[in-house]
Amino acid sequence: MITSVWPWAFRTTRTMLGDPLSVSATWNAYGVFRDPSEVMFSVEADECERLLGDFASSDEFTPGHWTDANPAVFAGSAGHRLFSIDRDFARFSGLEFLHLRA
């Protein structure tokens, strides 16, 4: 079951492949993907800020990790699986992560 989806993921993926969608096309693609009953919205868990602080306090955490930390903490704290073509999410221990091949 897929439980967390962000609309920007559609645009980012296409941009990385050299063929970005327009903003309106991104929203439309998200709507099509979001339609199945196994996809749902989720609210931020109470412990997100604490978990983000734990990552940020780690000696291994670098400024380049900020953009990945927020979705990783959001998904992990809610018990969701995060999927991405960015294999860097694997660095977050305890995160259920599915690496999609582009």
The average pLDDT is 76
Number of helices: 4
**Order of strands in the sheet with the most strands?**
1-2
The major pleated sheet works out as: 2 strands, parallel
Poorly predicted runs:
1-5
Instruction: Please tally the β strands and state the result.
Output: 2
Q: Which band does the percent of strand residues land in?
A: 5-15%
Radius of gyration: 14 Å
What would you call the shape? globular
Binned, the helix content reads 40-55%
Structural class: mainly alpha
Oligomer: single chain
Return the domain count: 2
Provide a descriptive summary of the structure in words.
- With 102 residues, the protein is mainly α.
- The chain has 2 domains: 1-41, no CATH class; 45-102, no CATH class.
- The protein is built from 4 helices and 2 strands.
- It has helices at 8-16, 23-34, 48-56, 66-77; strands at residues 81-84, 96-99.
- It has a two-stranded parallel sheet with strand order 1-2.
- Helix 3 (48-56) crosses helix 4.
- The two termini are 20 Å apart.
- Mean pLDDT is 76; it is low at 1-5.
Give me a quick take on this structure.
The chain is mostly helical and 102 residues long.
